[in-house]
Amino acid sequence: xxxxxxxxxxxxxxxxxxxxxxxxxxxxxxxxxxxxxxxxxxxxxxxxxxxxxxxxxxxxxxxxxxxxxxxxxxxxxxxxxxxxxxxxxxxxxxxxxxxxxxxxxxxxxxxxxxxxxxxxxxxxxxxxxxxxxxxxxxxxxxxxxxxxxxxxxxxxxxxxxxxxxxxxxxxxxxxxxxxxxxxxxxxxxxxxxxxxxxxxxxxxxxxxxxxxxxxxxxxxxxxxxxxxxxxxxxxxxxxxxxxxxxxxxxxxxxxxxxxxxxxxxxxxxxxxxxxxxxxxxxxxxxxxxxxxxxxxxxxxxxxxxxxxxxxxxxxxxxxxxxxxxxxxxxxxxxxxxxxxxxxxxxxx
Length: 348
Fold this sequence. Notes:
By secondary structure, the chain is α/β, with parallel strands linked by helices. Helix content is 41%, strand content 16%. It contains 14 helices and 14 strands. The strands form 3 sheets. Strands 8-7-6-9-11-10 form a 6-stranded mixed β-sheet, with helices on one face. It has a 5-stranded parallel β-sheet with strand order 2-1-12-13-14. Helix 1 (5-23) packs antiparallel against helix 2 (28-49), helix 3 runs parallel beside helix 13 (328-338) and helix 6 (152-165) runs antiparallel to helix 8. It starts with a helix and ends with a helix.
């Protein structure tokens, strides 16, 4: 372990003090009141909510993984510890015992496994998981417990928008990713973000490229992509959101050069239902992006890492000072999910 219990707790208290001072710098009196309030909130979380936590759900890119797509040592250790607790043969039923650890990510299952490296990634094979924005959920044995796909009509209209804007598109069908053109930004999904190799979508003859809307097996979600992030957000996103509103689809962003396009009536807590987890009392959730916000709001303890976007930060119960590059997710798991609460409460 890189940090002892009290060391982690001191880091959390520094976070509270930083937040308090920045938000209430207008007067020392207000700052002191805010600091006291935030200390009370931390006490409440550790005393009232943490002992009931039995499951940890976490985003992958931007949360577990650093900006360089690597695991910080403290995050790696926390993942291994959480999964070990899930499969511990001598664990008791006492409060706080972690029974489920699972990724809740926009990535494919193989993409998440591959991204976490040779030592940690394979451990996910024995974990349940929420993949592709909750549109593809599996149990511990890898059985699909829930999935939902876009209609061909919606995909066709999105493809037309992509063609009109001369940008790239990628479709997810479980662990198979498809595109109509392997542009640099599409290739980066595999080469940098660790997703499976994106294939050209081919017709029955196995040689001619067809449209994504003609893919017979259907698609869970689309990524609308371009290197020009300003154009993507100011020109493409408004048009895509108009289309989404018509068809009951939503648009979110994680990678700067990608817009997610997927069904809105699917929630990341579908797996919780399958595993008999009450997310409002038993779930610790970690995230950084706008597509994590719903999960953070739903969880008993929602934690945003220090690099989180404004939407995720506003949805979280607690915001770590430490960013993903600094092991913020690992420290959060240790503080709110894995270690005994007594050592922390003595100092609050």
